[in-house]
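Submission sheet (multi-component)
Chains listed below:
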Amino acid sequence: MDNVYSLLAFVLLAGMILGSALLVVTLRNLVHSVLWLIVMFVGVAGIFLLLNADFVAAVQVLVYAGAVCIMIVFGVMLVQRPDMQNSNPINWRFKLAAPVVGGLFIVIGLLTAKAQLTASPQEVPEQTVQALAPILLNDFVIPFEVAAVLLTVALTGALLLVKEVKANGNGS
Amino acid sequence: MGTALNPSYFIVLSAALFAIGLYGALSRKNAIAVLISIEIMLTAVNINLVAINKFLTPEAFIGQIFAIFVITVAAAEVGLGLAIIIAMFRSRHTVDLDDFDWMKW
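Outcome: structure written.
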């Protein structure tokens, strides 16, 4: 009975994710695209909860649906001209892109149907944070610190890029 | 092991999401829309990583660690991408990707 419920949850979440992702790439108004992007990220967090990855789901909601979408909204407000109605036009390449991505999806689907995936008999534990912490802070401590340095460098570089350029030369 | 959900469902969902993101990245004119489409593609990769982690190696947790690193790098990439787009908008007053032609000979 539990399997039926998880299958139902998967179908609902997949419909929500794919529908909102299609709206993101087809709507003409860029602000509406960003709002549907938040819906898609929350749906993906639901998929992560269905896969027993509660820490990744929490990070997904905090970082993607919170921080990244707010940052994109600020970028849209800083960049756009007053007319928002047709702010996101499509170019001539969509006629080329549609068969390419359709072919890619069909190829991946056929390969997936052909693959022999043997599921492991073990189950993921209910609490994943206690298992993630020693891996992240013992085995993966160097990439963890490198990620921190990467975020600092990216923040400093973004500040340098958007800093107002003085008309008469040297910075200050 | 339950039989209702198997890994190929999640792989097909991730492939569909990746295809939608690729279509958006190829067919939009606005640079911010292309950045959003790249985020959609990275999210599709994350679904694949976590699903493979659950179904094939549930005791190793490497897939979830990699998903966290992908989320970190994606956040840094969005910050830098928006900064570059704002800097280019200041000099050219456009965000249309077809108008970015500095490198044209």
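Remark: The radius of gyration of chain A is 21 Å.
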